[in-house]
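In this section we walk through a basic example: taking a raw amino acid sequence and producing a predicted 3D structure, encoded as discrete structure tokens. The instruction is simple. Fold the sequence below.
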Amino acid sequence: MAKYDHDFFVIGGGSGGVRAARIAASHGARVAVAEERYLGGTCVNVGCVPKKLFVYAAHFAEDFEDAAGFGWTLGARRFEWPRLLANKNAEIARLNGVYDRLLRDSGVEIFEARATVADAHTIEVGGTTVTAGHILVATGGWPVVPEVPGAEHAITSNEAFFLDRLPERVVVVGGGYIAVEFAGIFHGLGCEVIQLYRGPLFLRGFDDDVRRTLAGEMTKKGIDVRFDADIERIEQADGALRATLADGSRLEAERIMYATGRAPNTRGIGLEEAGVELDEKGAVAVDAYSRSSVENIFAVGDATDRVNLTPVAIREGHAVADTLFGGNPTMIDHADVPSCVFSQPSIGTVGLTEARARERYGAVDVYKSEFRALKHTLSGRDERTMMKLIVERASGRVVGCHMVGADAGEIIQGIGIAIKCGATKAQFDATVGIHPTSAEEFVTMRETAPEPEHEPEPEPEAEHEGHDRVPV
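The resulting token sequence is shown next.
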């Protein structure tokens, strides 16, 4: 008779947890998953899948305008928020079903209830007590809202996906990629948008040229981006919201959205009582194999606050399953992970920023290009693309690549492979470009940028907000 009810119990049915469960089951383990909200987690339900759909919707406003330069005459057009919302919800429901089917077809038992850890091998779930040889914490993250008076009147990205009507005027508070993405979404859908960030320049942790370029492009599009600005209190006023800023000025809007970071969703589920060590943010402290301070309890994804990207959580979950049940102890390499910000224009990045590269290697060569993409020679749009390569001078190896421009994520994915393989600038130069594309600029840059006149300031830590996509 088996010692435990399950070999593997996964708390959280997001992408990392689902992948771990499926792979463990494929290795022959008896697996269960508990999910109290919705299968697919943040990614599918209130993350990059619906967000990317909203970005597509928002970009049509510019596409319609650009069409005139290419000979198209368009008639009357109208945006219907309820229709977008309904279509988005239908797609999310379809994906929820896909996750459910994948788990059940793998032989995984699903508990649609909240799970808490009673001890190292015992879980309370839906009024039932079950036991497991190993437990995986894959509970993701949750938006954090500062404790300012009236904050209860504000929304986060969670609620933004389900608004009953599209507001005419929105204030977005925050400087990470969720903030810049939603500022672009709301603006593209016709809202008047003000974005507030408490620091001198948003997107901490990104390359400085990326940060400056995006700030300029968003301003040109008509988004009111205000730095060194923060809200002190929020009040209801005449059917709207009134925000009083730290400098005493006031703003009124129908909606105020906070995108000021996310925290690991680990409190109140019994981890600390079971002996699991959490850091000051609530993240589960884990080793290279995602093992916590309790030998049989593991954690992956945003619950560990390492690299908060869905593809990373998926790999971490897969590695845990292989380590425990596949006879293949596996560590995840978190270096040189490509990522994309679906701002408008978008950002793609992989490897080190210029500041980090100088800090690590000392002597580096920087190649940078700014240009107007071919499309906009006829569209007439004043949008610039920025591309940047950072090269370790001693070895010639490309250690960082950054882009602001259309389809940045699609382009950087391929560059990410090259950087992971240790490609040199000479190998980039020897690669024939595809013409005419923006991507060819990465293999045609020959002139190094001038050395900075001053030593770069130490780079601040990135703001972790969570960022994800849909593979399972």
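Looking at the output, two observations stand out. The first helix runs from residue 15 to 26. The longest strand covers residues 128-137. In the next section we compare this with other chains.
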